[in-house]
Design brief:
single chain, about 130 residues, alpha/beta, 5 strands, about 20% strand
C-alpha cells in the first residue's frame, strides 16, 4: 500500500499502527508537504501540489492508496475531489487524535476511514 501524507510527518509508531489497522504493509510513504498561500487561488495551488505527487495515471487507478489529508478544510475538500477524479473512487483516510494525558501535544492514529464505503452507505438513503 502507498501512504500519501499531505499532513504532519509520521513516526515509526504511527506507521506500525496504520499497518495494524489496515492489515496491509506500507510499501511506500510519499510525503507531500502542503502550504497554500491565502492570497492566491487555491485551485491553481492544488494543481501545483498534485504535480509533486510522483504517481502515474495507472498507479492512481491500480495501487492501494491510503491518504493523510491536510488539516485545512478547504484544501482537504479540493484534494478529495481531485483524488476521486484521478482514482475513480474516494480513498480511505487516516484520522489522528491528540494523545490523552500527554504533557506536550502529540498525536496518535485513531482509525482509518473508508470514504468510499461511507459514500456507498449514504447512497442507500436517497430512496
Amino acid at each position: 500500500m502507498f501512504l500519501i501524507n499531505f499532513g504532519h510527518p509520521f513516526t515509526s509508531e504511527h506507521l506500525t499502527r496504520v499497518e495494524d489497522l489496515s492489515g496491509q504493509k506500507i510499501e511506500r510513504v510519499i510525503a507531500v508537504p502542503v502550504q497554500f498561500d491565502n492570497r492566491r487561488p487555491f485551485l491553481s495551488q492544488l494543481q501545483e501540489l498534485m504535480a509533486r505527487v510522483p504517481l502515474s495515471p495507472e498507479q492512481w487507478q491500480t495501487e492501494a492508496i491510503l491518504v493523510n489529508l491536510p488539516s485545512l478544510n478547504f484544501i482537504a475538500a479540493l484534494l478529495l475531489a481531485e483524488l476521486h477524479g484521478r482514482m475513480g473512487y474516494f480513498p480511505s483516510i487516516i484520522r489522528l487524535r491528540p494523545v490523552e494525558g500527554s504533557t506536550s501535544t502529540r498525536y496518535e492514529v485513531a482509525e482509518i476511514l473508508n470514504l468510499e464505503a461511507v459514500r456507498a452507505a449514504a447512497r442507500q438513503t436517497r430512496f
